[in-house]
């Protein structure tokens, strides 16, 4: 998969652009200490980790990557250790000062003094290949995709996740 020139195939499998994946892999190798092993290269370890993140089981990864369950388990944990070593580069801690909109409003303070934002999701109608209708059909029986948004108190989006299945 790493050798493929087909960007769409790579993105479909790993859920990120190939250039982004290569940057992540370099970071995990240089700063996280992730190394190739005798039977599995570091890139394959990160791809196994990505497949587990999107919900693949150990059994499905064994079949997809043609390794034993123990090897899959080891690859997953080595990738997690590398991620945790580099976590300061991935996770940004929020500013813990109380926003003015809360501090200056007795309706909100002290009830929301520890709140850092608001989160909401919504179902948006979607048009997908009929083959995928089962996973995109929501509880109200129409085809949709789930959209998640997180805003700060200035109503700026600080995180969005769009396009995952409606069910």
Question: What does the model show?
Answer:
- By secondary structure, the protein is of the alpha+beta class.
- Helices cover about 40% and strands about 15% of the residues.
- The chain starts with 6 loop residues before the first helix and ends with a strand.
- The chain has a three-stranded antiparallel beta sheet, with no helix packed on it.
- The longest helix is centred in the middle third of the chain and has 17 residues, at about 70-85.
- α3 packs across α5.
- The chain is globular, with a radius of gyration of 20 Å.
Question: Notable features of this structure?
Answer:
167 residues; 15% strand
Strand arrangement, major sheet? 1-2-3
Radius of gyration: 20 Å
Overall mean pLDDT stands at: 86
Question: Percentage of helical residues?
Answer: 40-55%
Gross morphology: globular
Low-confidence stretches: none
Secondary-structure class: alpha+beta
Terminal Cα separation, in Å? 29 Å
Biggest pleated-sheet summary: 3 strands, antiparallel
**H/E order of the elements?**
HHHHHHHEHEE
| Amount of beta strand | 5-15%
Number of discrete helical segments? 8
The tally of beta strands, per DSSP, is 3
